[in-house]
Amino acid sequence: MDKKCINFYNKFIKYNRNYKRREVKMASVFKQLGQISMVVEDVMETAKIWNDEYGIGPWGFLHFTEENMTSMSVHGKNVPYAMDIALCNMYPNIEIELIAPKDDRSIYAEFLREHGPGIHHIAFVTPHGTFNVAKEMLERKGIEHAQGGKDPMGQEFAYYNLCKQLGCFIELNDRPDDFHPLPPEEQYPEK
Question: Does CATH place domain 31-188 in 3.10.180.10?
């Protein structure tokens, strides 16, 4: 091998080693993937397609409104919003989530209006104090805290707009130690 090739190879290896170290350090805040979420027009209709045509199910359905959620905000303002969701446990601790906005006030409604149905966000569970650390890190980078709230199970959530950088929103979840998911209000297919 000539000298130029060896020098290039050595620089390439050194760069990649350093890159991987930085990558691991940055990724340490996001330790547990929780969901891959899509915004759709109708959660039942979309869940039926996933289940009946592609074998992905069963799906549990929940309805969230200002009556069962607290601390709701959109783009930094206190704004109530409503949504239907469908959840499917694909792998241990990873869900596919379908969200249908029930009004025009949420980032889900904005996304559906601007892009149509599609992948909206990836959610990370940030337990034991890492929720605030992750929020602070994203806010220091100038990333918009686009939406937030607290669900009936006591889980706080925050969406950050990383659409330009990563192609989707990132959701952070702060689950209390005694967290238990709500039982579904409906299920498809029925048991």
Answer: yes
